[in-house]
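Q: My labmate handed me this sequence with no annotations at all. I'd like to see what the chain might look like in three dimensions before we decide whether it's worth expressing. Could you predict it?
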Amino acid sequence: MINLGSIFVKSPFKPLREHMKKVHESVAPLAPFMDALHEGNDDRLKQLRLEIQEAEEAADQIKNDIRNHLPHSLFLPIDRRDLLAVLDMQDSIADTAQDISDLLELRKMKLPNEMRPDLMNYVGVIEKACSLGYSISVDFEALVESGFGKHHTEKIVTMIDEVGQVESEADDLENQLIRKLFQMETEMNAVDVVFWYQLFGQIGDIADYTEKMANRLRLLVAK
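A: Here is what I predict for the chain of 223 residues:
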């Protein structure tokens, strides 16, 4: 665990970046988790759920440390409230990943085989959005340290735009999955259909929260 007390003397952005790293680590196992679910590999499923849980708990610890150590007055071009808003959005990503894995590990629901490639594509796009979010957090730290230099600013804005594009792609994939779900609902357990409908939305929430985090940083860059 990083020494937040010493880091805050220099910058609060290092622990914020470390938090987003753990957030990404909570999302990255979702694709192999879905594979294990559909293969009926319960041991692998439990192992991956534990990885997601441990990453989420580590993110929570960093989040609490940031809140406890963050000075009320920051001698930086960033308002404390803006920093905490970004932190909350990042934390929502990890919370959502854990909620998804917890439900599916408890209630092992499989989709029809015809829908499995679409689900894996969807989850892959969600992970891409989160990975971009982590890259933005790394570069945002460099941006602040550079005094909001033009080169770093343009790079950040380009990545933020890309997150928006990936989130739109995720929305399209979610809608396609929902249409297929309803087309095949007579072949499925009715309760499973309801849960999967909700889960598709939760998976999409990961991209939504990432986009909101990125757009919040866009406002800070534009100030």
